[in-house]
Design a protein that fits this description.
By secondary structure, this protein is of the alpha+beta class. It is 34% helix and 14% strand. Strands 1, 2, 3, 4, 5 and 6 form a 6-stranded mixed beta sheet that branches. It has a 3-stranded antiparallel beta sheet with strand order 7-8-9, with no helix packed on it. The longest helix is centred in the N-terminal third of the chain and has 29 residues. It is elongated. The two termini are 46 Å apart.
Length: 491
């Protein structure tokens, strides 16, 4: 028990609990006593219910542990052969102590709840909407964030103890974030009887699968975005119509009434590190499915980042990386983290353009990079055999010669980039960058010699532009960190 008590005390949770002010009526227990009782109850194999916490505090602790938690050392066991009066007296003590535990828990949760209400009563849809608005109101953000911080501190308390022991010595500091559905006790809203769920802030979590195109090509379409979906929270399912029944049915989407848990886990970029460190949760944010995945991901990693655990790489799936740049990507740049992003199938190749450079697969390349290299990502997705996949991977690796060179990194993710045909370490030769060279005999089979004659040559297109873009005319150009931040990645 002392280990759990010290773990909670050093986590910082007790400082975040509201003050235990005296109220009329029987005096309750300190908030920390009830909280530690709940943690001990789960540690001993019981549940997180208040009745199990009461049993743990009064029946499973030694007198010294009770004194440490300010629990009165009273014997609540009914002795054998007890008289009716003795049984009534012990039962009265059991009832009184349990009410004190319940009273303290109710008082603490009421102060941590931005919108207190009777959770045993199913409200109407309009009443539940008002409660949700209070949870999302700016005036209550401090209360909500304090509640999240309490959960985060409890999650990180054993992690920090393990980190100080050196269990994470081989962990490079990379982190991965994923949105996972969490079951709820209450039923989903009933829109026909105007009854909301007991879990007011829960919503519909949508799971999608791979669907096929309805066109004649028969190729597999882009996989639908699994996880959260914006705009599906607490909305009734569409009604079936006769016209809709006649159409060809698509692959059904699985909709579940759930909470969404944004969880952060340690990761690595090399397979050799698998199993070299504990696979534990580094952060957890409970939120409504389909709402603000970017800010939720940031809040999930923020406590671990502030403790110096997170470094370099941030990895997330499509449901998170599709967040708006100012909600996620620009914030990660400020934190100094490099993102590893998962794109939709229609965005694995060309994603944008800036001053002549084309963004392909998260990196800037020459504007005249061959088309087969640009579409190599889609080629890999459409591959059906090992030979096709190997050919597509070879095309993806061949992009490296056409990648613009980073000459300097600036603040806020800014980069100074240079044409790949410039400099003493040019990787391609281009007619737009003529460089006089003497005629020499080149051994193209020499593996360690990279001569200009052995470099890939960019051919002149049949219809060349009269004015070359900036990347083809200047020595270097500066790319601000905010440009195409949603798609850019370092790896």
């Amino acid at each position: 028990m002392r280990q759990v008590f010290d773990l909670v005390r050093h986590s910082g949770v007790l400082e975040r609990l509201p003050s235990n002010e005296h109220r009329p009526g029987p005096k309750g227990f300190p908030f920390r006593t009830v909280l530690i009782g709940l943690i001990l109850s789960q540690y001993m194999g019981k549940s997180a219910n208040i009745n199990d916490a009461w049993e743990t505090l009064f029946f499973a602790l030694s007198p010294g542990s009770k004194a440490l938690l300010d629990v009165p050392n009273v014997d609540l066991h009914i002795p054998e052969g007890a008289t009716r009066e003795e049984i009534d007296r012990v039962a009265h003590h059991q009832y009184a102590t349990s009410k004190r535990v319940y009273r303290s828990w109710a008082s603490m949760t009421r102060r941590l709840n931005p919108a207190p209400h009777d959770r045993r009563k199913r409200l109407s849809l309009s009443e539940a909407k008002k409660i949700r608005r209070k949870w999302n109101a700016r005036a209550n953000q401090d209360t909500v964030r304090n509640l999240e911080a309490i959960a985060q501190d409890l999650v990180l308390a054993p992690v920090m103890a393990s980190y100080r022991r050196g269990d994470f010595a081989r962990w490079p500091g990379h982190i991965a974030v994923d949105d996972t559905p969490v079951p709820v006790w209450g039923k989903e809203p009933d829109y026909h009887q105007d009854r909301a769920s007991l879990e007011i802030t829960a919503g519909m979590y949508v799971k999608g699968g791979t669907q096929k195109k309805s066109g004649p090509s028969g190729k597999a379409a882009a996989s639908t975005n699994t996880g959260t979906r914006r705009g599906t929270t607490n909305k009734p399912p569409p009604r079936k119509t006769k016209s809709g029944q006649g159409k060809k049915a698509k692959a059904p989407e699985k909709r579940e009434f759930r909470y969404a848990m944004m969880a952060a886990f340690p990761g690595h970029g090399h397979g050799d590190l698998a199993g070299a460190y504990p696979a534990v949760c580094l952060g957890m944010i409970l939120h409504t499915p389909g709402t603000e995945p970017g800010p939720a991901a940031l809040r999930a990693i923020q406590p671990a980042f502030e403790r110096g655990l997170v470094k370099d790489l941030f990895c997330a799936d499509r449901g998170i990386t599709q967040a708006k740049p100012h909600n996620l990507h620009l914030q990660l740049i400020k934190l100094g983290l490099n993102t590893v992003k998962h794109y939709n199938d229609d965005k694995v190749d060309r994603q944008g353009e800036f001053r002549g450079m084309q963004l392909v697969g998260g990196e800037f390349y020459c504007p005249l990079m061959p088309t087969p290299l640009i579409t190599a990502g889609a080629t890999y997705i459409d591959s059906r055999t090992d030979e096709d996949r190997a050919h597509a991977l070879n095309l993806i690796q061949s992009r490296k010669d056409y990648q613009t060179k980073v000459k300097e990194y600036g603040p806020a993710g800014d980069q100074r980039r240079q044409c790949p045909a410039l400099g003493s370490h040019a990787t391609v030769t281009c007619y737009r960058r003529p460089q006089p060279r003497p005629s020499t005999v080149v051994d193209l089979d020499a593996p360690t010699v990279r001569t200009p004659a052995a470099l890939p040559t960019i051919p002149r297109p049949k219809r060349d532009t009269p004015v070359y873009p900036d990347i083809c005319r200047g020595k270097s150009i500066t790319v601000p960190g905010t440009v195409l931040a949603k798609w850019r990645q370092k790896y």
